[in-house]
Amino acid sequence: MMTKRCGGKGAARGFARRIFLLALCIVGASRAAAQEAAAPAAETPSSHHMHHHQMDGGDGAFHRSFDGAENWAKEFDAAERDAWQKPQEVLEALKIGESAIVADIGAGTGYFATRIARLAPEGRVYAVDVEPDMARYLGERAKREGLPNLVPVLAQSDNPSLPQPVDLALVVDTFHHIGHRVAYFTRLKSSLKDDARLVIIDFKADSPNGPPPEHRIAPEKAVQELAEAGFTLVEQPSFLPRQYLLVFRKSAP
Predict the structure, then answer these.
(1) Global pTM?
(2) Three-state SS across 165-227?
(3) pLDDT, position 71
(4) Contact 245, 233 (CB under 8 A)
Protein backbone atom coordinates (compact mmCIF):
# COMPACT_ATOMS: atom_id res chain seq x y z
CA MET A 1 0.00 0.00 0.00
CA MET A 2 2.89 2.36 0.77
CA THR A 3 4.35 1.71 -2.61
CA LYS A 4 1.07 2.49 -4.29
CA ARG A 5 0.67 5.76 -2.41
CA CYS A 6 4.23 6.79 -3.23
CA GLY A 7 3.58 6.04 -6.90
CA GLY A 8 0.40 8.13 -6.80
CA LYS A 9 2.22 11.06 -5.24
CA GLY A 10 5.05 10.77 -7.81
CA ALA A 11 2.60 10.72 -10.67
CA ALA A 12 0.79 13.70 -9.26
CA ARG A 13 4.05 15.61 -8.84
CA GLY A 14 5.08 14.77 -12.41
CA PHE A 15 1.74 15.92 -13.74
CA ALA A 16 1.98 19.17 -11.74
CA ARG A 17 5.51 19.76 -13.07
CA ARG A 18 4.32 19.31 -16.64
CA ILE A 19 1.46 21.74 -16.07
CA PHE A 20 3.89 24.27 -14.57
CA LEU A 21 6.32 24.02 -17.50
CA LEU A 22 3.47 24.33 -19.98
CA ALA A 23 2.27 27.46 -18.22
CA LEU A 24 5.78 28.95 -18.39
CA CYS A 25 5.93 28.28 -22.13
CA ILE A 26 2.56 29.93 -22.68
CA VAL A 27 3.56 33.00 -20.63
CA GLY A 28 6.90 33.27 -22.41
CA ALA A 29 5.30 33.02 -25.84
CA SER A 30 2.70 35.62 -24.91
CA ARG A 31 5.38 38.06 -23.73
CA ALA A 32 7.45 37.54 -26.89
CA ALA A 33 4.40 38.13 -29.08
CA ALA A 34 3.54 41.28 -27.16
CA GLN A 35 7.11 42.63 -27.48
CA GLU A 36 7.16 41.83 -31.20
CA ALA A 37 3.86 43.64 -31.71
CA ALA A 38 5.06 46.65 -29.72
CA ALA A 39 8.41 46.94 -31.49
CA PRO A 40 8.47 49.06 -34.70
CA ALA A 41 9.00 47.10 -37.87
CA ALA A 42 12.51 47.29 -39.27
CA GLU A 43 12.58 49.79 -42.12
CA THR A 44 13.86 48.17 -45.27
CA PRO A 45 15.08 50.24 -48.21
CA SER A 46 11.87 49.54 -50.10
CA SER A 47 9.64 50.47 -47.15
CA HIS A 48 11.63 53.68 -46.80
CA HIS A 49 11.01 54.50 -50.45
CA MET A 50 7.33 53.68 -50.21
CA HIS A 51 6.96 55.97 -47.22
CA HIS A 52 8.59 58.95 -48.90
CA HIS A 53 7.59 58.29 -52.50
CA GLN A 54 4.37 57.77 -54.31
CA MET A 55 3.43 57.31 -57.90
CA ASP A 56 1.11 59.98 -59.22
CA GLY A 57 -1.65 58.21 -61.18
CA GLY A 58 -0.65 57.79 -64.75
CA ASP A 59 1.99 60.50 -65.29
CA GLY A 60 4.91 58.05 -65.22
CA ALA A 61 6.84 60.00 -62.59
CA PHE A 62 8.24 58.94 -59.25
CA HIS A 63 7.39 61.74 -56.83
CA ARG A 64 9.25 62.63 -53.69
CA SER A 65 9.28 65.60 -51.34
CA PHE A 66 12.69 67.27 -51.11
CA ASP A 67 12.01 69.89 -48.47
CA GLY A 68 14.66 70.46 -45.81
CA ALA A 69 17.42 71.42 -48.25
CA GLU A 70 20.14 71.69 -45.62
CA ASN A 71 19.63 68.04 -44.70
CA TRP A 72 19.56 66.93 -48.33
CA ALA A 73 22.80 68.83 -48.96
CA LYS A 74 24.61 66.38 -46.67
CA GLU A 75 23.67 63.59 -49.08
CA PHE A 76 23.62 65.36 -52.44
CA ASP A 77 26.95 67.15 -51.92
CA ALA A 78 28.75 64.41 -50.00
CA ALA A 79 32.35 63.90 -51.11
CA GLU A 80 31.69 60.17 -51.52
CA ARG A 81 29.33 60.93 -54.40
CA ASP A 82 32.21 62.14 -56.56
CA ALA A 83 33.58 58.61 -56.89
CA TRP A 84 30.58 57.39 -58.91
CA GLN A 85 29.04 60.64 -60.18
CA LYS A 86 32.39 61.73 -61.64
CA PRO A 87 31.45 65.42 -62.01
CA GLN A 88 34.83 66.44 -63.40
CA GLU A 89 34.70 63.82 -66.14
CA VAL A 90 31.07 64.69 -66.96
CA LEU A 91 31.81 68.39 -67.34
CA GLU A 92 34.95 67.73 -69.38
CA ALA A 93 32.90 65.55 -71.73
CA LEU A 94 30.31 68.30 -72.13
CA LYS A 95 32.91 70.96 -73.03
CA ILE A 96 31.00 73.90 -71.54
CA GLY A 97 32.27 77.28 -72.73
CA GLU A 98 32.95 80.28 -70.50
CA SER A 99 29.96 82.19 -71.87
CA ALA A 100 27.53 79.25 -72.05
CA ILE A 101 23.91 79.58 -70.96
CA VAL A 102 23.02 76.38 -69.10
CA ALA A 103 19.92 75.02 -67.40
CA ASP A 104 20.46 72.46 -64.64
CA ILE A 105 16.97 70.95 -64.40
CA GLY A 106 16.43 69.32 -61.04
CA ALA A 107 19.41 71.17 -59.61
CA GLY A 108 18.76 70.13 -56.02
CA THR A 109 21.33 71.75 -53.73
CA GLY A 110 23.61 72.75 -56.61
CA TYR A 111 26.02 69.82 -56.97
CA PHE A 112 26.41 70.43 -60.71
CA ALA A 113 25.07 73.99 -60.95
CA THR A 114 27.84 75.48 -58.80
CA ARG A 115 30.52 73.63 -60.74
CA ILE A 116 29.07 74.80 -64.06
CA ALA A 117 28.83 78.39 -62.80
CA ARG A 118 32.58 78.34 -62.16
CA LEU A 119 33.25 76.97 -65.64
CA ALA A 120 31.08 79.64 -67.29
CA PRO A 121 31.85 82.88 -65.43
CA GLU A 122 30.74 84.97 -68.42
CA GLY A 123 27.59 82.94 -68.98
CA ARG A 124 24.61 82.05 -66.84
CA VAL A 125 23.41 78.93 -65.04
CA TYR A 126 19.73 78.51 -64.32
CA ALA A 127 19.45 76.16 -61.35
CA VAL A 128 15.92 74.83 -61.86
CA ASP A 129 13.91 73.02 -59.21
CA VAL A 130 10.23 72.57 -58.35
CA GLU A 131 10.92 72.51 -54.60
CA PRO A 132 10.67 76.01 -53.04
CA ASP A 133 13.15 75.14 -50.29
CA MET A 134 15.71 74.05 -52.89
CA ALA A 135 15.29 77.32 -54.78
CA ARG A 136 15.84 79.22 -51.53
CA TYR A 137 18.92 77.18 -50.71
CA LEU A 138 20.36 77.64 -54.21
CA GLY A 139 19.99 81.41 -53.97
CA GLU A 140 21.70 81.49 -50.60
CA ARG A 141 24.48 79.20 -51.79
CA ALA A 142 25.12 81.34 -54.87
CA LYS A 143 25.60 84.40 -52.65
CA ARG A 144 27.68 82.50 -50.11
CA GLU A 145 30.03 81.14 -52.77
CA GLY A 146 30.23 84.33 -54.84
CA LEU A 147 28.47 82.99 -57.95
CA PRO A 148 26.40 85.88 -59.36
CA ASN A 149 25.88 83.96 -62.62
CA LEU A 150 23.98 81.18 -60.81
CA VAL A 151 20.27 82.00 -60.89
CA PRO A 152 17.74 79.82 -59.04
CA VAL A 153 14.51 79.17 -60.93
CA LEU A 154 11.41 77.85 -59.17
CA ALA A 155 9.80 75.76 -61.90
CA GLN A 156 6.43 74.12 -62.37
CA SER A 157 6.15 70.35 -62.54
CA ASP A 158 5.19 70.53 -66.23
CA ASN A 159 7.39 73.43 -67.27
CA PRO A 160 11.02 74.34 -66.42
CA SER A 161 10.10 78.04 -66.74
CA LEU A 162 13.43 79.07 -68.25
CA PRO A 163 13.84 82.85 -68.63
CA GLN A 164 15.76 82.56 -71.93
CA PRO A 165 16.89 79.94 -74.47
CA VAL A 166 19.90 77.91 -73.33
CA ASP A 167 22.89 76.21 -74.95
CA LEU A 168 22.66 73.16 -72.72
CA ALA A 169 19.95 71.57 -70.61
CA LEU A 170 21.34 69.11 -68.07
CA VAL A 171 19.02 66.66 -66.31
CA VAL A 172 20.88 64.64 -63.66
CA ASP A 173 19.11 61.98 -61.57
CA THR A 174 15.82 63.74 -62.30
CA PHE A 175 14.42 62.16 -65.48
CA HIS A 176 12.46 59.58 -63.48
CA HIS A 177 10.88 62.36 -61.38
CA ILE A 178 9.38 64.15 -64.40
CA GLY A 179 5.76 63.39 -65.26
CA HIS A 180 4.35 63.22 -68.79
CA ARG A 181 7.90 63.32 -70.12
CA VAL A 182 7.08 63.45 -73.83
CA ALA A 183 4.92 66.55 -73.34
CA TYR A 184 7.46 68.08 -70.92
CA PHE A 185 10.42 67.76 -73.26
CA THR A 186 8.38 68.78 -76.28
CA ARG A 187 7.68 71.99 -74.39
CA LEU A 188 11.35 72.31 -73.40
CA LYS A 189 12.42 72.50 -77.06
CA SER A 190 11.22 76.10 -77.29
CA SER A 191 13.68 76.99 -74.52
CA LEU A 192 16.66 75.46 -76.33
CA LYS A 193 18.75 77.21 -78.93
CA ASP A 194 18.82 75.59 -82.36
CA ASP A 195 22.22 73.94 -81.73
CA ALA A 196 21.61 73.26 -78.05
CA ARG A 197 22.19 69.91 -76.36
CA LEU A 198 19.97 68.04 -73.95
CA VAL A 199 21.85 65.73 -71.58
CA ILE A 200 20.16 63.03 -69.51
CA ILE A 201 21.99 61.24 -66.71
CA ASP A 202 20.00 58.68 -64.76
CA PHE A 203 20.42 55.44 -62.85
CA LYS A 204 21.09 52.05 -64.40
CA ALA A 205 18.95 49.09 -63.37
CA ASP A 206 21.71 47.57 -61.22
CA SER A 207 22.87 50.78 -59.52
CA PRO A 208 23.01 50.69 -55.69
CA ASN A 209 21.80 54.29 -55.75
CA GLY A 210 18.58 55.73 -57.08
CA PRO A 211 14.87 54.94 -56.86
CA PRO A 212 13.55 51.39 -56.35
CA PRO A 213 14.32 49.27 -59.44
CA GLU A 214 10.72 49.17 -60.61
CA HIS A 215 10.72 52.95 -60.97
CA ARG A 216 13.94 53.27 -62.96
CA ILE A 217 13.80 54.19 -66.62
CA ALA A 218 15.91 52.17 -69.03
CA PRO A 219 18.06 54.20 -71.44
CA GLU A 220 16.21 52.63 -74.38
CA LYS A 221 12.93 53.97 -73.05
CA ALA A 222 14.45 57.41 -72.47
CA VAL A 223 15.68 57.47 -76.07
CA GLN A 224 12.24 56.42 -77.32
CA GLU A 225 10.39 59.05 -75.27
CA LEU A 226 12.74 61.82 -76.32
CA ALA A 227 12.47 60.79 -79.97
CA GLU A 228 8.72 61.26 -79.62
CA ALA A 229 9.42 64.69 -78.13
CA GLY A 230 11.55 65.64 -81.14
CA PHE A 231 15.13 64.82 -80.05
CA THR A 232 17.84 62.69 -81.62
CA LEU A 233 20.50 60.79 -79.67
CA VAL A 234 23.93 61.95 -80.83
CA GLU A 235 26.27 60.60 -78.18
CA GLN A 236 26.29 58.00 -75.40
CA PRO A 237 29.49 58.03 -73.31
CA SER A 238 29.89 55.01 -71.03
CA PHE A 239 32.33 56.08 -68.31
CA LEU A 240 29.78 56.40 -65.48
CA PRO A 241 29.64 53.20 -63.38
CA ARG A 242 26.11 53.59 -61.98
CA GLN A 243 24.33 55.77 -64.52
CA TYR A 244 23.81 56.15 -68.23
CA LEU A 245 24.64 59.41 -70.02
CA LEU A 246 22.69 60.38 -73.14
CA VAL A 247 23.35 63.45 -75.28
CA PHE A 248 20.58 64.69 -77.59
CA ARG A 249 20.01 67.47 -80.07
CA LYS A 250 16.77 68.70 -81.51
CA SER A 251 15.69 66.55 -84.43
CA ALA A 252 15.70 68.10 -87.88
CA PRO A 253 12.26 69.44 -88.84
Answers:
(1) 0.74
(2) CEEEEEEECCHHHCCCHHHHHHHHHHHEEEEEEEEEEEECCCCCCCCCHHHCCCHHHHHHHHH
(3) 67
(4) no
